[in-house]
Fold:
Amino acid sequence: MAKHVVVDLGGEVSSFDFSAVRREQLYGRRRRLALDASGEPCTRASILADGSLLLRSGMTGQGYFTPDLTWVSNREVEGVAVDGGPAPLVPSTLDVAQPLEGPIDAAEVLDLDVLAIYALAPAEVGVGLRDRMAAGEMFRFAFNYRDDFRPETAVLLANDNGTFALVGYPSQQVWDDLDNEPEVAAPVDDAADVDDLDFDMF
Structure:
């Protein structure tokens, strides 16, 4: 059974079917196909720097090798927090109602480092949310496609082309105050290191 993106606006629950929006859907794509000597399509692979192993597509999604060539499955990987302790595993948010925060400012959307875009097809949408999105309001909610150690942020918005969720991480912008003058390094006198030229010698 397909899962849904479920959101809650003031106790009014709405759910959406969703599908990823991919670049080729918007712009199309051209593909250059490599063929072997017999005319069959080649399979892409990567070779380790020391030439010891050949990795085919999909292998790195199952785990990775440590520097001493020990295989570690993804199931054995544990998240570590900044303080060195174990990072809590954040469960998937699919089929779980997530509270909507907002409306948010457009600047917050522009500061989102977008990793994925999902087209949302309304399965059951509350009147309040539908009207507010039609008025151009945008909302923030927590999103995790699968269990992960780092929850993502999604922005819910609608326009003439449909309803969408922009998923990513808020970028951290550090700005300085205009009153804080930057320290400028003292100029270096390079003249002392250069011999004087005597143009009479030319």
